[in-house]
Design brief:
heterodimer; A: alpha/beta; TIM Barrel; Immunoglobulin-like; nine-stranded mixed beta sheet; four-stranded antiparallel beta sheet; B: Porin; two-stranded antiparallel ribbon; 3 helices; 10 strands; about 15% helix; elongated
Amino acid sequence: MRRMAAGFMILLAGWGLSLAEELPVPTLDNVFIISIEHSVTDSAEVEYIKNHFDFGLYAWLCFSKTAFALPLDWHASWGEADQGIQDFKDQVDQYIQSARQQDVRLHLVLVAGLVRYVSLYKEAKQEDIRNAQWYNDNKLASDSHVVDPELMDTYVFATLSRYARKMRRNLEAKSKAALAFLKQRMDENPGTIAALSGWSEAELNYHRIDHSQSLQEYFCDYSPFAVLEFRDWIRHTGMYDDNGGKYAGEGYSEGGDKYWGASGLEQFNQDFGTNFTTWDLKYFHWSLSDDYDTNPTDMANPDPHRIPYFEYMHGQMMPDSGPHYTGGGFDPPREMAPEDAFWDLWNLFRELMVHHFVLDVAKWASEADIPSGRWYSHQIPGDYLFGTNPESEDKNARYYSSASPLWTADIEPYGSVGATIYDIKFPGYFTRTTDYALEAISGMAGRWAAMEYDAETYPTGFDVSQSSANKILLQYFRVYKYGPHLINFFKWWDNGEHRIKGMNKEVALRRFIERVRDWPLRGNALQGDKLSSVSYDPPRVNGLTGEHDESGGLNRLEFSEKIWSGHRWEWEDWGDFSHFNVYRGESLDFPDDETHLLAETKKTFYVDQNITQGKVYYYRVKAVNSSGVSGAASVTLRLPRNITYTLNLKAQTGGTTNPSPGIYGVDKDTEVDIFAVPDYQYVFNGWSGDAAGDENPLSVFMNRDKDITAKFLNDIPSAPLNFTGEKVVDASVGQKQYVNYLTWDANPQNNDVEKYRIYEKVDGKEEMLEEVSANTFEYLRRGVEEDKQYIYALTAVNIRGVEGVRAVTTVR
Amino acid sequence: MKRLISVWALAILMAGSAWAQGAAFEVRGLYFWPVEQTFQDVYGAGVQFGGQAFIGLGKHWDLWASGDFYKKKGELTFSKEETTVRIIPIAAGLRVRLPVNQCCFYISGGVGYFLFKEENIIGTVKDSKIGYLGKAGCAVKVLKGLYLDAHFQYAHCSIQPMEDKTNISGLSFGVGIGFDFGLGETEEKWIWKEVK
């Protein structure tokens, strides 16, 4: 126990930073969101959590709902999807109402119904089984599952192919309607919806994993929709046509017109060791010119190649003759053979199908103006599950079947990466997804989220005892150390598998929150901990006012309970707050030093009874933190008052002033200090009205009525535009090198860019390559490998050193 | 290096056996057009300098040896960053002459040892390989043993400094000025009379 405590202290000391800056205003961008998986409509439990956990300024209580299914009837009009998702809207409204009533926030997880809640697309799969994922033997399910009455509701996933056009139209219509609705609700209820994530755990079907067989025995997706998309992706035809295709520019980087026609097929056979004689599909060939049924409401699907479920013959879907068979036809590899060129190409496409599914909804969210900082992906990282990693000899079976490596969760710049990360405790040992996933995911982006996190899941059927609260606490800190913006603690109540309430996890969570509540997050670096010996400087006390009580022979002072004017946070919410120092002097410019210290108080008022009648006194107040550091002094208050002039203070969006915006009566010929206080990611942009310049604080001499406005500017540079890259060869006579050539354009919204930063993400880790000047719009990354995929991020950095939103591009 | 020594040894050996037949030395400049597309793209055509020596073997035959130096700056194919190439071909072979009045037309062929070095941002590479050369030209006597020479030369050599083979072959047009230390017309006639 002692050893563990020592380790704990070392861990905390390592995080302690020597900070000497003012406590920033908490916003959704710099707080740590503790999102507990439980229904916010359960007011008794919400109240319990609020009363038993000491949430502070920078640890915000949030409730996750995993997940909201998004149903739109299969025969509903796509143009009227807004009406078709009324149930979803009602449910969300109920959650928002509950959250607002209880003053908590929400994290809503969206499910499409293709690979989770799969009954949503039951009718789609029955109408045309090409809407389902097909295994490599063209079966929809295992021999035992296929006879299960719950087959379509449980075991058959819908295809993630973009070529399942009718299903995609339904998906896109309901998604866009839901996202527009969510955006509207976010605007109407600022701050209530702290995060959205989706689609929840997109992956290919894993239901046929059988640990008694080779792990990669059965895998998806061989739906004719997926296979035709694979073919067109290679050749840049159909929807991947670079001239006008819906997904122009997204085709296989080494493919294209060189694979067109008979000679192209010959070339493909040479390049990939195949022997196709036609680009038509070997099984169930179809064409994009087929009528895919653009009117879902008429209950008639005219698609000539539709395969209704009643025509499905289990085990007989790989004919060797007849109308559904093309000899020598195109077909993906049916056996896993890593490092075989054709298999690797197919596997890359399988992963891309998953990635596109995740990316497409993130784009739709962005089109709906949902801020990228509120949208997360929510992937199940097949390559990091339960202590494995992409380099492991023994990979998890889902690594093979699901085609959902962590990189499929990368949705920048439309949102941030989120992944389900949970550990399992078996009798005597753990399997921890956190072993490698934390480092990988935190290396992908500055902002990330751990979804469905559980430090120790107790699997049903095993007799597993809980770890001590301190051991669990250390696990919580392990995750926190990697700087997540949100942890979805899974979950408050269940049959015991994940349960927090009443378990050591509850004690650990309480201690965890006590320690992180006073520390703002920045990027992915933890800034400190309550137990370390340093803390932030207190902000300036605002709202100092008072009156002279002549009859009582005393002066009454009071000041604001709020730390920042215009924000809800009170001094007592800040764990590092100690007390206020009240200073008194007999001239306007008296020094606020020890000799003028009148009192220390924790209250936001003070009564000075030790005064001489008829004498003028001046007062100031400072807040002091637990380290004894005091903040800036408040305005100086003269008592008795001698109000002559009016000071009308205003603040534009993006900040406030201290004293707070408002109308003040000010004593004649006194000087008032006004502070401009920008919100997080805004900067002060000068004064207007009866003041000019950008002096901060501003000293205003009150010799007349004055009207002063503080101006603020969003300080986050927008993402550079058209960030793209291509792999090219740079050569001389005797030498040759592959080079990734990155180009971009300036974003006209940014007018004070000082430089650009270029990052490379390899194997999930992000590393800054170089900073280039603001008038540079290209970068050469030398020495890259011919066959390797690279992901680059680009940010603009303004003259104040603030780094902006990332633009991301992939070079294959 | 071994190969370089053998080529020089051959030239010296042949020269030693032929002193009695006369000799010539020439300095020359060549304009070199590479045949390989990448070479053309990166460096284009350029000037090369060198010299050659001839040892007579009889009325129409010579042994010859040459050494040239070619250095040029160019641009990488994509990034257009600077690159420098240096090629030193050292060659020897046989020449056959056909004198017509004051002119002497000739063709010659031989083997060469090509030293290649290239420096740029990608790195520095060196390689050396054996290739072959062919020449055809005309020398015109201008005064005593002094003569002017003009010729076309084709040199072929493949190198492989890294994984990929490339060739540094090319066609050159050269002009030179030389001095023939061989017998004068009177001595020549006397010798041939004695021989007959």
